[in-house]
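Homework help thread (please don't just give me the answer)

Our assignment gives two proteins as sequence + structure token strings and asks us to describe the second one. The first is just a warm-up. Here they are:
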Amino acid sequence: MSASTVRGTIAGMGQRANPAFAVGVVAVALAALAYATTMASIQHHTYVHVMAGVLWTGTDLFIGVILGPVIGGLDEEASAAVFERLTPKTAFFLPSMAFLTIATGIPLALRLGVFPNAGPWLALFTLFNVVPILLLLGWRLNAFDDWRWQVPFAVGTVGSLVWVGLTIGTFQMIEPALAVALVLVTLLSVQGFGFLMPGEIRIYKQMVSPAPDASVISAIGQQNAKLGGLQGLVQLVLIADMVYLRYGGF
């Protein structure tokens, strides 16, 4: 998928989602991230992180546990019609909330002093996020032979490996609950950006094709709904782990 195609997909998704909604969701997420990581007190930083996580988790659970089964009972035409309206909005909302949750969570852990010796762990975290996500994007979007995918993949892989090489010498074990959190966040990130997001792009490409196939739109949408529900369940485990890490028990 070329860079112009990607830009066209984003613009087209934004038009179908409602441009004000698409721009507003992304702008609010970026503004909240900037505020939380620069000027916010620890209390306000925690609020931004928790609320982003609540919105991310709640939306995934709603789609997977409530909306998904309802849509699953519809015929293909009706199911596809729902996903054609839903997907453009979730394509902006869920990645924004996921990114905001993760991007505020790590700095918050550093501010709270529960993430000592973070360098090598963040290097490994970056490696195990960036490389699988880019590989999955290349595979699911048929972009392995496109230099616009090859360059980010090369830069991301080499940069991650160099960071690991520079910091691995100071590697030390951390609190088990924090290590579990990093693993769970990695699973969520890879699944969200490597599976769910390409699925949404494939739905959009069907929507704008000369002859949209309702069965394909319905199948991908229902698969994404199930994966979203699974994400919500993993997020509940992550929340329990975070409570344990922050307060030392239940």
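The one we have to describe:
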Amino acid sequence: MISDRRTLLTGILAAGATLALPQRLLAATGTPLPAPPAYTPPAITQAERERRIEEARRRMRAAGISALLIEPGSSLIYFTGIEWHRSERLTCAVIPANGDIAIVMPFFEEPSIRLSLAIPAEVRIWNEDEDPLVTVAGILKDRKAAAGPIAIEETMRYFAVDGLKKALPNAAIVSGAGVVRGCRMHKSPAEIALMRHATDITIAAYRWLVPQVAPGMKASAVSSMMDAATRAMGGSPEFSMVLVDAAAALPHGVREDQTIGENSLVLMDCGCTVEGYQSDVSRTFVVGRPSDHQRQVWDQVHRGQQVAFAAAKIGAAAASVDDAVRRFYEGLGYGPGYRLPGLSHRTGHGIGLDGHEPVNLVHGETQVLEPGMCFSDEPGLYLPGQFGVRLEDCFHMTEAGPAWFSQPPESLERPV
């Protein structure tokens, strides 16, 4: 029997009421939105960013690279603090192996871009009738880095690379992935604290939300509730995917806005950011009474998470984690490999400033696990046309082995 409070809430949400107004949600549920956590970890300091730059320089010198170029995005935030968008007007950082860092930006955008610049750096502007890559080339010449090799952060766009080749036709252009990944894969204690805080917010939002999910609700309404709870605690929602019954067998869902029914299985995949650092947590639960089959698969995935966690050992190849899970699932009759029914995606991905970043826990990945690396652990099982179960918690590698950001759920009856 659905309570009167749930009936009222279901009516409001089914009618499409926005949860941008938490007061309406409060009135419907009688359950206050969660309070912000008592502790907020400090932001990344200038000193930490400068240490990151020095580490990048160390890696460049070891690889014989003269400079590194980075466009706006998470890597630019990582090294400089600059939060800016990409457009046809180039903004970039030039990090030489020896010499001062420089930021290239459009003249009229300079005041805005400077607002998030978190380190000392030379700023060189260019006007609308000028070629910004000529400005970049000038910086490289001043730093005696123009002969190269010049490394390019892996997401930098072709037009910028092509323009640099024209401005410095004799310079060797190489990939900067090894330098940037080498820095970003190993999280500092401050980064791990921010990721833990983001995860704490996501878990608290789940604990507030799940008891209120009821038959008749739309998936979009449940997603909006999750976002409202996340914002109430100071997190910035990144995604809140809600999949119901057969749609849960599709790892990234469907376009249709599903309706939760009696005894529906619900798979949620949600995350937020704190100071740019991400959480990523999936939970699967049943709104009502689970079937024996649903319970069996949930228990198998719960065990699969533990198999992955146990396999994550310092010095082991990242592939070994994925391989251990697949051996376990194949022993249960799933697969083999990536075949369905079974685990059709990698066991986990790197996480930090990006929700998905190198390296991955996937078959064939030779990168060894080292302290400071952070991963998701999400060995879902998907049964096409029936349902899917995914439990996802992230962990970071310590000298002693893996440590959870969030503890996996205890049981299908206690899914959060």
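TA reply:
I won't write it for you, but here's a hint about the kind of observation we're looking for: The first strand starts at residue 67 and ends at 70.
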